[in-house]
Amino acid sequence: MTTKQDIIQKAKSERRTVLTEIESKELIKKAGISVSDTRLATSREEAISLGRQLGFPAVLKVISPDIVHKSDAGGVKLDIKTSKQVGKAYDDILEAIHQKHPQAAIQGVSVQKMARPGVEVIIGMSKDAQFGPVIMFGLGGILVEILKDVSFRIVPLEKRDAREMIREIKGYPVLEGYRGQEPVDVANLEELILKVSSFVEQHPEIEELDLNPIFAYSDGAVAVDARVILGEG
Ligand code: ADP
Ligand code: MG
């Protein structure tokens, strides 16, 4: 069985600091965090067969250690409903990447199920020169990017930190449910934050972690994108 250390060592032995979405998800799944089941296809046929296997609607994404922002590069196709659409998405992704990033090493294309809509939240970890690893929490999308509506706590976090950091963002009412939308399972998000905290504490070689986005539901949450970056050396 592959361990978390195996996944980290593999990247290190290839002198890579950026783990792909597939590696990052494998790693955080082993830390007990729920992720969308994501498989690597190295051919068009394989992508189609994985699409059938995992079920529609599906999502296809480029897998390359050289491409950090997949959608900006034309490397994400959502809501794919048929095998035929899988084939087209596969071709379109490769073409877009060849055009925009001709130098990028492409490992393949990932196939995963399209997650049902939920409230998008993000959990991140970065290292502060003074404080060391710091966990960030915020709502996904525009709220985080433009309004910087996020909260921070220094690792290791305690239960109370996780509780507070969720409640102190301005967008907290969104998690409590609005306009008839169901409230999000906040207790589950607290646990998720604590799992990320102990995971990064156990793996000091991790320099940066980004679960962006996590889809939060009234019954749990699932990370649909993950990025882990290792420190140099
Ligand atoms: P990027 O590298 O650009 O951050 P993501 O993997 O986050 O790429 O995909 C871009 C967006 O597509 C996400 O923010 C999310 O809204 C949507 N998305 C990605 N994966 C899924 C999925 N499995 N189910 C539903 N939506 C998804
Ligand atoms: Mg993302």
Topology:
Elements: H1 4-13, H2 21-30, E1 38-41, H3 44-54, E2 58-63, E3 76-80, H4 83-100, E4 108-113, E5 119-128, E6 132-139, H5 142-145, E7 150-154, H6 159-167, H7 172-175, H8 186-202, E8 206-217, E9 220-223, E10 226-230
Antiparallel strand pairs: 1-4, 2-3, 2-4, 5-6, 5-8, 6-7, 8-9, 8-10
Helix pairs in contact: 3-4, 6-8
The protein binds adenosine-5'-diphosphate (ADP) and magnesium ion.
Molecules bound to protein: adenosine-5'-diphosphate, magnesium ion
N- and C-termini, Cα separation = 26 Å
Shape: globular
Quaternary structure annotation: single chain
Helical element count?
8
Low-confidence stretches: none
| Strands, count | 10
Helix content bin = 25-40%
Summarize this structure as a short list of keywords or feature phrases:
single chain; 233 residues; alpha+beta; 6-stranded antiparallel β-sheet; 4-stranded antiparallel β-sheet; 8 helices; 10 strands; globular; binds adenosine-5'-diphosphate; binds magnesium ion
